[in-house]
Automatic annotation (TrEMBL):
This is Regulator of G-protein signaling 16. GO terms for biological process: negative regulation of signal transduction. Residues 73-189 form the RGS domain. Regulates G protein-coupled receptor signaling cascades. Inhibits signal transduction by increasing the GTPase activity of G protein alpha subunits, thereby driving them into their inactive GDP-bound form. Plays an important role in the phototransduction cascade by regulating the lifetime and effective concentration of activated transducin alpha. May regulate extra and intracellular mitogenic signals. Residues 183-203 are annotated as: Disordered. It comes from Pomatorhinus ruficollis. Coiled coil: none annotated. PANTHER family: REGULATOR OF G PROTEIN SIGNALING, REGULATOR OF G-PROTEIN SIGNALING 16.
Length: 203
């Protein structure tokens, strides 16, 4: 049937058919977009996984560098959260973790701004770590103990400074060298060095 005549049914049909592919194409494009998103999801997941692996690798490298820096100085060890945790675990094996706990309590104490809290915290720390026969008594001399006791009467953020310094020196001169020689640190150090050399060989 010819569709050249105006008003011919075939002409309107042709027009309808001509319009149909456009609609179909639009729907097809929409489906393609949706399918594309679905198809790319595993790839995105893979990328996210790769990203998390890279972040994990980065954390491992940072951790490796940390571990090796602990032996540079006692300060380096105390600056590292994981270093403090490792040292604390070691001190537990020697039944002397109260020294580090006291030092950490003093560091936290210095950050206290409220005078009321300062006084109550000072008494609590003194009773737990400093006074004679304290539950977790630290190894300081009698003179330092008495100076600290007197400081409590007008508690300031510096009232434990002397006792904290003595405890720190004790850990640095006594426990810290033993920690560096311990099997646990030697093992961590070997692993850190191995990861470091492995990274260099891949670059």
């Amino acid at each position: 049937m010819s569709c050249w005549m105006p008003g011919c049914p075939a002409l309107s049909m042709c027009r309808g058919l001509a319009a149909l592919p456009i609609t179909c194409l639009e729907r097809a494009k929409d489906l393609k977009t949706r399918l594309g998103i679905l198809l790319h999801k595993p790839e995105l997941g893979h990328k996210a996984g790769s990203s998390s692996k890279l972040q994990l690798g980065s954390r491992r490298r940072d951790s490796s560098r940390d571990v090796l820096e602990w032996r540079e100085s006692f300060d380096q060890l105390l600056k590292s959260k994981s270093g403090v945790n490792a040292f604390h675990t070691f001190l537990k094996t020697e039944f002397s973790e109260e020294n580090l706990d006291f030092w950490l309590a003093c560091e936290d104490f210095k950050k206290t701004r409220s005078k009321t809290k300062l006084a109550s915290k000072a008494n609590r720390i003194f009773e737990e770590f400093v006074q004679s026969e304290a539950p977790r008594e630290v190894n300081i001399d009698h003179e330092t103990r008495e100076i600290t006791r007197k400081n409590l009467s007008g508690a300031t953020s510096a009232c434990f400074n002397e006792a904290q310094a003595k405890t720190r020196t004790l850990m640095e001169k006594d426990s810290y060298p033993r920690f560096l020689k311990s099997a646990s640190y030697q093992d961590m150090s070997r692993q850190a060095a191995s990861r470091g050399s492995s990274k260099r060989s891949h670059t």
